[in-house]
Design a protein that fits this description.
CATH class of the largest domain: Alpha Beta
Helix content: 25-40%
Strand order of the largest sheet: 11-10-13-14-5-16-15
Shape: elongated
CATH superfamily of the largest domain: PPM-type phosphatase domain
CATH architecture of the largest domain: 4-Layer Sandwich
Number of helices: 8
Length: 383
Amino acid sequence: MSNLHVLETLPGIISQLVSDLAETVGCAWAIVVSRVGTNLLPLYTYGEESRVNAGLANLSAQLQGEIPAGPEAAGILCPVQFEGENLAVIALGPRNSGEPYTPDDRGLVAGLAAHISSLMANDRLASTVARSIGRLREARAELETARQVQRRFLPGRLNPVRGLDYYGACREAGDVGSDFFDFVAPDRSSLLLSVGDVSTRSIPSAIIMAGLQASLRAFGLRGRGRVSSLVRDLNRMVCDLSPDDFYATMFYARIDAMRRKMQYVNAGHEPPLLIRNKEQVAVELETTGTVLGLSSRTSYRERSLSLEPGDLLVAVSEERGAPRQRVLDVIRSHPHASSSTLANHLIQEVDAVVVVRFLGAAALQVVLAPPQQKLLAHVALAG
C-alpha cells in the first residue's frame, strides 16, 4: 500500500481510537499530525479549538527537540510507524486534572500507536476498519441530531403566571437523554407542568419522547378537561406508536393559581414532594396509575389539592440514584430560596427537576434558558 493511500486511510482509522484514548486519560487536547515537506498536516484533532491551535503552535518546536513556550505543550509525543518510517505523531496535551502522565498512560499511547501501525500494514483490514469507523461517525451524527431535537422540546422562555414562581432544569446526557420536563401556561393564572422519564436511551425513544411532549402541549392548550382524561388519551397514543419495550413515567399537574388548586396524575413516576409552608411537612404525591405505554386500557385517577402561599412543589427524575433523603436535605437547607436557586442546587443531585412555589405575590422575572450544560426556565409574576 502506497504512503499516499496510507495517509488517505489513516484519518478514518485514528479518529475514533484517539478520541477514546483522549477521554480515557483525560487530556485537554489531542492532535495527530503527519509531516508533508516542512509543514505539519493535522490528520485529527480533539478538544477545544483555541487549545488545539495553541498546541499546534508549540508542536513543531517540540518535534524539533526545542522547549515550547506557553502552557499548551504536549505531555506525550508518540510516533506512528509504517514500513520503517514515522508516518505520523500522536500528541496529547496536558491533563485536565493538572497531574502528570503516568507510565501506564504512556504505555497506553504507545500500544495504540503500535495497533494503528499493524492495522495499516494490512490493506484489506485497514479499509474494513475505515468503513466501520465511518459508520460509527454516522451513528454519532444521528445521536447529535436526536439531542438537538430533545433540546428544542425543552422549554426556553415561558409565559408569566400570576402568583407562581417556577423553574425547570434537565441535565444534558452524554448521549440522548431519557428525562424530560415541560411547562405550558394556557392563561395568565394557570400552569400545566410535566416531568418524566422514558425507559430507554435511544434514537427511537427520543423521537417518541418529542412526540409525547408535543402532544402534551397540544392536549393542554386544547381545553380545560380533566387531567386524568388527558393522561389517558396520551397513554393510548403512546401504546399505538411505541415499540413493545417502550414505556414512560410521568407526573402531570394543572395548577390554578387564582383558585389555589392543583390537580395531578402520577403515572408511575417518582413521587413528587409538596412541602406545606404552614406545617413544614413534606407530602409525597403517590402514584395514581401505571406507567405510560403498557396498556391502552389503563385508567388514571386524578387527585386535587388546595394550595397556600409558600407551598412548594418539587418533582424530580432520580435516575442517578440520589436518595430521597438527600433531596429533602437540599430543600430544607434552602427554605426561602427562589425556585431557580433551589433547582440549581437540586440539579447537582438529580437528572431533571421542576420546582413550583405558590406565592400569591412575586416580582416579575423572565429568564431565558442558556443553551449549554443545563436547560433552564424560570418565571415569576406578581399576583
